[in-house]
Amino acid sequence: MQQRPQTVSSMQLVGISWFLMTLAVLAIGFRQAIFLSPTDANQGDVGRTFYYHVPTAMLSLLFPYINFAASLAFLYWRRRDPLKALTADALAVTSAEVAVIYSSICLITGSIWGRAVWGIWWTWDPRLTSMLLLWLLYVAYLITRRLSATGQTSTLAAVLSIFAAVDVPIVYMSIRWWRTQHPAPVFGGGPDSGIDKSMMPAFVWNIVAWAAWGIFLCGFRFALERRRQLAEQDAALNALEASLELAQ
Amino acid sequence: MTYLRHVLDHLRKDLRLEWRSRDSINGMLFFALLVVIVFSLAFEPTAAESRRIAGGILWVAILFATITALNQAWTREQRNHVLDAQRMAPSPPSTLFLGKVLANMLFVSLVEAVLAPLFIIFYNLHALGNVWLLAAVMPLGTWALVCNGTFFAALGLRTRNRELMLPLVLLPISLPALLAMIQAATGILTAELDPIQIGSWIRLLAGYDLIFTIVCLLLFDTVLSAE
Asked: Which residues make Cβ contacts (< 8 Å) with residue A8, sequence separation at least 6?
């Protein structure tokens, strides 16, 4: 118990330095994307949305998998090792929340880009529909966590997360399976895919920055959730001890 | 073989319960009928227009009716702690689930069989495409709804307001199946999609059914004994 303030403060130090590093990289990414990268020949300045839309889109497909893996780990440890299971559950709720945030940013930036280039805010094309579906699924996941009685939340949510994860590959493959209005895959799509060398620095800085930001959010929220769990355990323990004293 | 016998036992139990009370089928039928009538008043369907929206409306009616029935699907098991008894029974939990899904599938199919002729009359429908393809689309689509719906109704048993929870969770997860069903059914009714496209929607639906049935069967034990 003596060591606890020490470890917490060192973790806080790591957190703060990570946060500052993230801000710095976000600033560099912003400068690269807005001022240094060449203006798109066809789209003009609106093309710069690319540097925000694509990284958040890629990351919003990554966090659901963390959620999925954490949920599987929770179900595995549920009976074998309840304390590990609690950690996995905290990671699951964290990654689900970050997935909702990132897919929201992806949908909003995509919508702004669509308004400028296609002239419409939204179209029911497979990529857009499946992305919206992803967003809906994880919002439903978070709502289920709120609706269920305490003590059962985690199991029900973990089960639901497995259903949601089945949809993620559909989103990823949608622009490969169907010919859509959404632009074709930028990376690993075919012979014409990939971006011009001049766009590369801005893109790389931004994806690193947004990944770092996502990791920061995850870590922060995870620590918060762990504290809530520990507080809950303490309260339960106190209640148990109080009831034992009453019995005597 | 014993697995199959357990499934059939559960199915027989559900059918007998429904035969004695008939509350879920009657409720579903009337509800679906109401939805169809409300939509036909709201849209004032003419022949060409109606064919285009009919596939969607039929599915929405069936979807809503299914949700109202599924919300009640497990309550009779919960009364008198029957579900606890099921939990302790030596039969695998997935047999209970499979029996319930088969029973619900029968009920919903019955509702569809009654609804379809009414629907054709109200909307002046005559299909332009290959009608026999509907024989593949309807059961596959119904299975997707009923299988996931029964599963999430069981999951919702432990939530605070389960009447709200079921549609909140079931609708997003069934959206791919719903999309495939509606596209295929509309394509058949209007003959606007070519058979290859209809075939790919049907394949998507079959794949969806396969994946989610397996997931449901694997996870039902966890949901049944979640505490």
From this structure: none
